[in-house]
From TrEMBL:
<keyword id="KW-0378">Hydrolase</keyword>
<dbReference type="GO" id="GO:0003724">
    <property type="term" value="F:RNA helicase activity"/>
</dbReference>
<dbReference type="GO" id="GO:0006397">
    <property type="term" value="P:mRNA processing"/>
</dbReference>
<dbReference type="InterPro" id="IPR027417">
    <property type="entry name" value="P-loop_NTPase"/>
</dbReference>
<feature type="domain" description="Helicase C-terminal">
    <location>
        <begin position="270"/>
        <end position="444"/>
    </location>
</feature>
<keyword id="KW-0347">Helicase</keyword>
<dbReference type="Pfam" id="PF07717">
    <property type="entry name" value="OB_NTP_bind"/>
</dbReference>
<dbReference type="InterPro" id="IPR048333">
    <property type="entry name" value="HA2_WH"/>
</dbReference>
<keyword id="KW-0547">Nucleotide-binding</keyword>
<dbReference type="GO" id="GO:0005524">
    <property type="term" value="F:ATP binding"/>
</dbReference>
<dbReference type="Pfam" id="PF00271">
    <property type="entry name" value="Helicase_C"/>
</dbReference>
<dbReference type="InterPro" id="IPR007502">
    <property type="entry name" value="Helicase-assoc_dom"/>
</dbReference>
<dbReference type="Pfam" id="PF04408">
    <property type="entry name" value="WHD_HA2"/>
</dbReference>
<keyword id="KW-0067">ATP-binding</keyword>
<feature type="domain" description="Helicase ATP-binding">
    <location>
        <begin position="42"/>
        <end position="247"/>
    </location>
</feature>
<dbReference type="Pfam" id="PF21010">
    <property type="entry name" value="HA2_C"/>
</dbReference>
<dbReference type="InterPro" id="IPR011709">
    <property type="entry name" value="DEAD-box_helicase_OB_fold"/>
</dbReference>
């Protein structure tokens, strides 16, 4: 019968496509430079409990090593191979790729887990995750007992989470080795109960050892990996651990430099995009920029210029990717462009390491990156734009040459490259440490200064952050985590001040409102004001603005958007309603991407506080409790008006000014709290709300009584 015949043939086609794809993948895997080193690497891991692996970008470290270890029997007794990544997008996309290479559905043998998104199951043996997530797992399972191997990938990035994790893993690894060895043959020192005595990294290891002995935990294999790693430094830190190099890269990447330094790198990037598009052979372009605003401005400029090109040259598809973009939008960059189109990806350093973006042949690297810095003496955390390190430049160029030869356009002269720092300053050296301290305390590590970090944070920064946590009520006078506030705060994946605000809000009966405001404060630029439509955008803002300040204004925006969406959903499909909301955002000069991100964060933190058993109630129309709650939570950033119209920040003594984007810019109330201090040519404060000065001593006596 014809229909039978066609069914059969379509099954045949599907089958042969499947086998063709598997063959293609197998061929690709065998061609990777790391493939020649498979046996050697397995031997090295068998012989060394800690191993450092350095290999070129694209050589196959992240995708292949876990598979080699799995096939080499490292999961035989049920253990999991955990691979950490500094970024969520890398954890997700690499896991997808490896699942495909293994020919299994994602979430079975191969899975990933990132904050609020866990695609693993009992059968998962190769698990990709963010370094922050593994740290959170350590809170519940200090021995990381389900892992037989942990690979810390992209260790060169030296995020705070990676650094804390390295210190923690050093201890866990040592303890698990000792525990396991002791079961077999013990001549180690023991206490009267026969438990090994060992105190390391501030953790009382006797209990860990006891556990290791009772559960017969096997030693943990620890692998530190990167393409651009100071192998010696890492080896020294891990007591002379063995370092191996995997030679070779799959495809060449031509590096091109400019003759002269560029005065405006954004403009230079724009010109280079069009030059490549008009003159070079097919292949997609990846451009590294410093942030959402820069990306959105180039996106508009490219769109503006496209219609001026000849019809045949207009097939250019611009796709942005930055951290605060919802993940389903981030995933768009991994989709192939429609036939005949060239894709231009505008990315922050989120796409710098680990990821393979299909189709990328050209990389444009202006050599700049936005980083958060920290001034412990004032508590200011300005975001500044700085030059990348050599390691970052190498990673960026490594995003090309993954599927074929590539080109990287560095928008600076070659001699400038030589002047760059070898590696990026570790984040722990330049950030507010209150979150780190809170996490370490929650892990039972009380001696923060004595903790064996690969690079010690500044002592002053540690002390400042302990002070801050004490003032927020998270630490006791003995510097222990307080109960319940400190413990609750450590469970919330937020900046400690926001976590505290949520806890306080449950007492002020306005948690409903605070959840929204914290979500809105957690995203970049809710409002946008294009220069050519400044008046219109101001008028739009007025319809939401509250004379009490920006926090209530943000609340109004969120609620108005929810109301709009609900109404739209009553008469439209969900997709249509979402589309209408984007239109509504545009009309009201609201950044729909940021708003969507805030809605996601809102539902996530709402789930968190529900799990913690906090009371979610609303203060209704009376905003007084909410404003008092703002004062009780943000008292460390209270400021008083001075005769000249500037403000004095009460905790740092700095002179600050309300940012022109604030609804209180002209009103200038006597006493305010603010969320953020931005340092440009002035100290500007953003997200400002009016409070009553007398509330400060009443609601934060621990701070304002100390001041007198
Ligand atoms: N999602 C993907 N789609 C297509 N090919 C991929 C994908 N992920 C990896 N590959 C291929 O596998 C190769 C090895 O990637 P892998 O991430 O394992 O390298 P790596 O050595 O870890 O690189 P890096 O140091 O840059 O993270 C890539 O160069 C690419 O050819």
């Amino acid at each position: 019968m014809p229909s039978m015949a066609s069914n059969n043939s379509s099954t045949h086609t599907a089958k042969s496509e499947f086998y063709a794809r598997r063959q293609e993948i197998e061929k690709h895997r065998k061609a990777l430079p790391i493939a020649a080193a498979e046996k050697r690497l397995l031997e090295e891991v068998r012989n060394n409990d800690i191993l450092i692996i350095v290999g070129e970008t694209g050589s196959g470290k992240t995708t292949q090593l876990p598979q080699y270890l799995f096939n080499g029997g490292f999961c035989r007794s049920g253990g999991i191979i955990g691979i950490t990544q500094p970024r969520r997008v890398a954890a997700v996309t690499v896991a997808k790729r490896v699942a495909e290479e293994c020919g299994v559905p994602l979430g079975q043998k191969v899975g990933y887990a990132i904050r609020f998104d866990d695609l693993t199951s009992n059968s998962t043996r190769i698990k990709y995750m963010t370094d922050g997530l593994l740290l959170r797992e350590a809170l519940l399972d200090p021995y990381l007992s389900k892992y037989s191997v942990i690979i810390v990938d992209e260790a060169h990035e030296r995020t705070v989470h990676t650094d804390v994790l390295l210190g923690l893993l050093k201890t866990v690894q040592k303890t698990r080795s000792l525990g396991a060895r002791d079961i077999v043959n013990s001549d180690n020192k023991k206490d009267e109960n026969g438990t090994l005595l060992e105190k390391d990294n501030g953790i009382q290891n006797t209990s860990i050892l006891k556990h290791c002995q009772s559960t017969k935990l096997s030693p943990l294999k620890l692998i530190i990996m990167s393409a651009s790693l100071d192998a010696q430094g890492f080896s020294d830190y891990f007591g002379g651990a063995r370092a191996v190099h995997v030679q070779g890269r799959q495809f060449p990447v031509d590096i091109l430099y400019t003759n002269q330094p560029e005065t405006d790198y954004v403009d230079a990037a724009l010109i280079t995009i069009f030059q490549i598009h008009l003159e070079e052979s097919p292949g997609d372009i990846l451009v590294f920029l410093t942030g959402q605003e820069e990306i959105e401005s180039i996106e508009r400029l490219v769109q503006d210029r496209l219609p001026k090109l000849p019809e045949s040259k207009r097939k250019l598809l611009v796709v942005p990717i930055f951290a605060s973009l919802p993940s389903e939008k981030q995933m768009k960059v991994f989709m192939l462009a429609p036939v005949g189109f060239r894709k231009v990806i505008l990315a922050t350093n989120i796409a710098e390491t680990s990821v393979t973006i299909p189709g990328i042949k050209y990389v444009i690297d202006p050599g700049m990156v936005k980083v958060r810095t920290y001034d412990a003496s004032t508590g200011i955390e300005p975001l500044i734009i700085v030059k990348t390190s050599k390691a970052q430049a190498l990673q960026r160029s490594g995003r090309a040459g993954r599927e074929g030869p590539g080109k990287c356009y560095r928008l600076y002269p070659e001699n400038e490259f030589e002047k760059l720092k070898d590696s990026t300053t570790a984040e722990i050296k330049r950030c507010n440490l209150s979150n780190v301290v809170l996490q370490l305390k929650a892990l039972g590590i009380d001696d923060i200064v004595g903790f064996d970090f690969i690079e010690k944070p500044d002592r002053m920064a540690v002390i400042k952050s302990m002070e801050l946590l004490f003032l927020l009520g998270a630490l006791t006078e003995e510097s222990k985590l307080s109960d319940p506030v400190g413990h609750q705060m450590s469970r919330l994946p937020l900046d400690p001040i926001y976590s505290k605000a949520l806890i306080v809000a449950s007492q002020f009966n306005c948690l409903e409102e605070m959840l929204i405001v914290v979500a809105m404060l957690s995203v970049e630029s809710i409002f946008y004001a294009p220069r050519e439509k400044l008046d219109e955008s101001r008028t739009a803002l007025k319809s939401f603005s509250s004379t009490d300040g920006d926090h209530l204004t943000l609340l109004n925006v969120y609620r108005a958007s929810e109301e709009f969406l609900e109404k739209s959903k009553q008469v439209n499909s969900k997709e249509k309603a979402e589309k209408n909301l984007r239109k509504w955002c545009k009309e009201n000069f609201i950044n729909s991407r940021s708003l969507k991100h805030a809605r996601d964060i809102h539902s996530q933190i709402r789930r968190n506080v529900e799990q913690m058993g906090l009371q979610i109630t609303s203060c209704g129309d009376d905003m007084l409790p909410f404003r008092r709650c703002l004062a009780a939570s943000f008292f460390l950033s209270a400021a008083l008006k001075q005769p000249d119209g500037t403000y004095r920040a009460l905790s740092s003594g700095l002179t600050v000014q309300i940012h022109p984007s604030s609804v209180l810019f002209r009103m200038k109330p006597e006493c305010i709290i603010f969320d953020e201090l931005v340092r440009t040519n002035q100290n500007y404060i953003r997200n400002v709300s009016r409070i009553d000065y007398l509330w400060l001593a009443e609601l934060a006596p621990q701070f304002f009584a100390l001041q007198e």
